[in-house]
Amino acid sequence: xxxxxxxxxxxxxxxxxxxxxxxxxxxxxxxxxxxxxxxxxxxxxxxxxxxxxxxxxxxxxxxxxxxxxxxxxxxxxxxxxxxxxxxxxxxxxxxxxxxxxxxxxxxxxxxxxxxxxxxxxxxxxxxxxxxxxxxxxxxxxxxxxxxxxxxxxxxxxxxxxxxxxxxxxxxxxxxxxxxxxxxxxxxxxxxxxxxxxxxxxxxxxxxxxxxxxxxxxxxxxxxxxxxxxxxxxxxxxxxxxxxxxxxxxxxxxxxxxxxxxxxxxxxxxxxxxxxxxxxxxxxxxxxxxxxxxxxxxx
Amino acid sequence: xxxxxxxxxxxxxxxxxxxxxxxxxxxxxxxxxxxxxxxxxxxxxxxxxxxxxxxxxxxxxxxxxxxxxxxxxxxxxxxxxxxxxxxxxxxxxxxxxxxxxxxxxxxxxxxxxxxxxxxxxxxxxxxxxxxxxxxxxxxxxxxxxxxxxxxxxxxxxxxxxxxxxxxxxxxxxxxxxxxxxxxxxxxxxxxxxxxxxxxxxxxxxxxxxxxxxxxxxxxxxxxxxxxxxxxxxxxxxxxxxxxxxxxxxxxxxxxxxxxxxxxxxxxxxxxxxxxxxxxxxxx
Lengths: 298, 283
Prior knowledge:
The complex is a heterodimer. By secondary structure, chain A is an alpha/beta fold. Chain A has 9 helices and 9 strands. In chain A, the strands form 2 sheets. Chain A has a 7-stranded parallel beta sheet with strand order 3-2-1-4-6-7-9, sandwiched between helices. A two-stranded parallel sheet of chain A has the order 5-8. In chain A, strand 6, helix 5 and strand 7 form a beta-alpha-beta unit. In chain A, helix 3 runs parallel beside helix 4 (about 110-140). Chain B is of the alpha/beta class. Chain B has a single domain, classed as Rossmann fold, CATH 3.40.50.720. In chain B, about 50% of the residues lie in helices and about 15% in strands. Chain B has helices at about 20-30, 45-50, 70-80, 105-130, 150-170, 190-195, 200, 210-225, 230-240, 255-265, 265-280, and strands spanning about 10, 35-40, 55-60, 85-90, 95, 135-140, 175-185, 195, 250. In chain B, the strands form 2 sheets. A 7-stranded parallel beta sheet of chain B has the order 3-2-1-4-6-7-9, sandwiched between helices. In chain B, strands 5-8 form a two-stranded parallel ribbon. In chain B, helix 1 packs across helix 9 (about 230-240) and helix 3 runs parallel beside helix 4. Chain B starts with 8 loop residues before the first strand and ends with a helix.
């Protein structure tokens, strides 16, 4: 079925406006590109001005406007959104994407590591939503796409903080969907599996993860190998942009869209299997859980 | 852990009322040496009264404060030499429309329910690793499995607890440490008195004023009808008595069955039910 090419121009012949956060690489960049190709005016936010090369390449050929936004700082978010509203008077689509992954065993992470992770991945989403929803409500229309992750369904070890932040995002999506529906604002969650994005490269290591004293140092190494192997298999992020486009064309949008076979498969297994069976499967995959317990009679 | 050569030691947070209060008494009765912590030491009177003759020691501990967790753990080690069970119970609920919470409100909710819980866990893990075993019980919630409008912030913090539990189980298994989450449904405790409502709602300037009022009133009504903390204590004792702790233990009819019902329903149908429910609250 051909994708209907609607919503390019509104009756007032004004371009529809999309705001994509974290658009300097990965899903954000590809989504900004796709939305621009489909005729949207895209405001693409970035944090680090040094990583702008890919986004700049878009500016030449499309209606893409990079703007700086630090999602961990409320004034920065408010300022960027205000600027867009002043220029355009509207935001039709919000793609909440900015995020990073904190790697490390939960015990190895510091207080600050947890706070940084949630500040970007959870509170950051909320800050942007808080700024954008009033303008959507005024027009009684709008679509919010929130990037979750398969980590929001399946709790992988050695990624505990990231996983917890994505579980929290799932709750936010489900709740916002109900709260904003009466105002004509649609909310959906996109759940990608593993893809070739910068999330691995831009992931951070917790405070003690690299410390030789960490009780988990061997497991961390094993896990790194496993993650490297898995993420090498991942598809191109433009696939996820395609699914976001599909979601935007559904009316109303579904609760959740899975991207990638691995995400679909794992989410299905997690849903279908009892907890202990699913854990048993994880045990087969994760090297150290096959080790004997230190003291079985405890 | 049925046969104990030495008395097992349990550390429970948030014991001034409700689940923590009942759990510390129940564990003490079933043979544990209990260290019950609470944030506001002035509220220790009731527990001190109720625990007369039982091996319960009351300590003051605010899980929001960094470093305090480690200090408390070393106090307990000095007194009892070990910690076999940690029950992460301290927590409260923040309610309102997700859009209307301020940064401070969001951070305050997470500080206790998520970061505080992790601080306690991290403080206890080295002890358990050294003694080659231990059990950690997080008190999650039905709100960690399902959400409803007006409860988003609280739910998201409890979803995070579910994630911590599931991830940490695999991480600490080689050290013979077990982790589980207890999921109470509606429970008649002081939870409703300790809850926080979003500032905008309290000032009557919320976009969602009418709906929120009805949802909160409904929540109150539900919890007044609900059984007390006893059912949660039963779930805790069941977890502690089991040979290997399962991923989760539910307490109460709603906590046991709502997720099962959700499990059966297709997304679209479930979404439609929520839409109808929300409409009923809004009308």
